[in-house]
Amino acid sequence: MARAFYAGVRRAGFTRSCESVILNSAIVTTAAIHTNVIPGEMPTLSPFAPASPDDVDKRHELGQFLTPKPVADFMASLFEIHRSEVRMLDAGAGVGALSAALVGRLCRDPRKPKRISITAYEIDTAQIESLRARLDGCRLECERAGISFSSAVLNEDFIAAAVPMVRGDLFTLESPRFNTAIINPPYRKIRSDSSTRLLLRSAGVEASNLYAGFVALIVRLLDKGGELVAITPRSFCNGPYFKPFRAHFLEAMSLRRLHVFESRSAAFSRDAVLQENIIFHAVKGAPKPEQVIISISSGASSGSVAEHEVEYREVVSPDDAEQFIHLVEGGTQASARAVMGGLSASLPKLGLAVSTGRVVDFRAREFLRQQPERDTAPLIYPCHFNGGFVRWPKEKARKPNAIVSNEQTRELLVPAGIYVLVKRFTAKEERKRIVACIYDSDQIQSPFVGFENHLNYFHANGRGLPMALAKGLAAFLNSTVVDAYFRQFNGHTQVNAADLRSLNYPTKAELEKLGRRIADPGMPQAQLDAMVGEELF
Prior knowledge:
By secondary structure, this protein is α/β, with parallel strands linked by helices. The protein contains 18 helices and 20 strands. The strands form four sheets. A nine-stranded mixed β-sheet has the order 3-2-1-4-5-7-6-8-9. Helix 4 packs parallel to helix 5 (125-145), helix 6 (158-167) crosses helix 8 and helix 8 (210-221) runs parallel beside helix 9. The longest helix has 21 residues, at 125-145. The protein is elongated and about 80 Å long.
């Protein structure tokens, strides 16, 4: 399997990425932008069209974006509905694109339901008239199909309305139950001390982002057997911040399908959004399936959707305490997963740990120096990466090169040594997700060094590594097989220390043997991959 993986890498050059976000030319995150619309008509908002400053400000404030019709139609097609009565929830409904897409699909279905009821929440008052007009259009469509239809439009904050229902508050009306939910929720971080975070917490929901809060509440409002189709950022698939959400979601829901996108550039180019998006279909309270459908679309307006089946345990491993969700797309990624699964060591077995750089520059501003002085220590940023080794100081750098070394800053520094550094953030256009580099104190004479917070650093109980081990580890992390595997569960440009801890590693002896062969871990990718494949796999 490893030989096949590296042969494929050499043939294809591994230029493909699973970065998400476009299905048939546009996408993403929910429908609450004020646009000029004709009542009952779907507003058109090209991702390439200029937006007014007011629209942009409002979109960023609410964390909401329009759902294009091709995306809505695709989402509606994923349901397995065969019910006489459909009780639908559309939270963050915008102008009703998702509800209309699902109603249209049901009206065309050979096994039509007898009744459809929709409860639509939308916080943006500017959208309400268009939303009602859209649902009036759904009523006419249902009448023509012989389906009874009713709807309720609620100009409310969904979280504020749903939490009392979930809690079962004494003076709250009986909680409505839904058997169908379709959603493109708002995407915006929630501060830990915000009223929204506290409100969610009162209902037993721990969520660091609005979209996770929306989905968690919807799951609680669904009946057993109820279906949910949602488009959200991929960030919930991994990382410590979303662990409580993943645990509850995977316990309550049975994942049936995950859809990823090959490109995010068109939709997110103006918004500087670092997230990739996915569409998922899940059923509440159903047994976990033996297999999950993974599908992918190119993003071209005429692009097709390719799909394959993956064992459920390959998507969510029963042995993974973090319950990361892996999107194994087949081909190179499937081979990478098999290769990584054959590695036997963890960081504790290697006697290593990984931590995040301690220096948060804006908090230590008074101690930063543009150039080194007698009383300073090197301060290393990602800009100091140069091939496989750190090059310091950097002339004409925008970032400071040094930090004062004294009793006040001692806890921000680490002892001189050899450390493997990994960027915590990579640019959207960078070819690789994990970028590793070596800090060598023999090249930079100083008893201490500071690593800025945008770096992760590998260490041995707080101290440096032997050079052979550091070279082998850096080469392994820079390899294509690790990048291909990492992309299966990491859908954004941030590389957390927790993500690096979750990886399987070669043994210490294997890494040291590899390291003794390597002069520079920043060697050309094809050469590095060939050497890693020969030594480790």
